[in-house]
Amino acid sequence: MEDEQMSEGFEGPGQPASRDRQMVASLGRGLAILSAFRTVQPVLSNSELAAATGLPRPSVSRLTHTLVKLGYLEYDSEWGQAGGYRLGPRVLAMGYAMRGGLTLRHVAMTHLDDLAQLCNGLAGLVALQGHGMLMVEVVRAGHAEIGNLEAGVHTPLESTAMGRAYLASCSQPERDRLVALLISQRGLNPDQLNEVVGRACDEYRELGACTAIDSWRDGNCGAAVPLYLKGFGSRMVLTCGATRADVSAQRLREEIVPAVRDAARKIELEYERGSRQRSR
Known about the structure:
The chain is 50% helix and 17% strand. By secondary structure, it is an alpha+beta fold. It has 2 domains: 91 residues, Winged helix-like DNA-binding domain superfamily/Winged helix DNA-binding domain (Arc Repressor Mutant, subunit A); 180 residues, 2-Layer Sandwich (Beta-Lactamase). Strands 5-4-3-8-7-6 form a 6-stranded antiparallel sheet, sandwiched between helices. A two-stranded antiparallel sheet has the order 1-2. It is globular.
């Protein structure tokens, strides 16, 4: 079939094509559909899903039909002219199972709350997904006005403190892979991107953290530190963000960065202690 050939090796948005014969391409396409939904776009039509995933429209129609039948999507006939889809209860159940089983989340919650209160903004746990960062857990201080960041939201790698902290702390081969991905998938200027990554690495060596001021959204700033968790599958990042009205550039470096570093070390120690207790 034509669309089967076009989608051979498809691994989802932002992922390079793979010729791995163990890969199930149809599963990858279905997961790409589920990954296309965002907090700011909770309902998407087949056309919008095709644009977001790069998949042919006929494939998208069959995939959404299947996902509705299985309970992973729900169809909303009143959305737009042709109707749309939203994530279904089975996805929600998977999310709760993942977050409930994430021991790191329980360890980190108190520290996230303390950081959010300190900067009158938000604090969160973040993981790499594709060529961006995925907010896994977010804690806000009251009605902090710092955009729509919440669990499930994706943010850029190169322009956020959390993304820069990941880039600066990963291995050189992994950094090179991500830079190449940003250039090929996002069309970023190689010279400008390498300059940003170089500055992030320099800052990480100096501060043990990375910062961002007005680089992603005007009026916002943030600091982030990678978490080194023994026995944890993937690298996580601890981040803290606020508006410039609440945190100046000087306060960000002199107070917020040390607080995020200190919280990261405490989370690492508490997680390791809990892991030892669970293994007994």
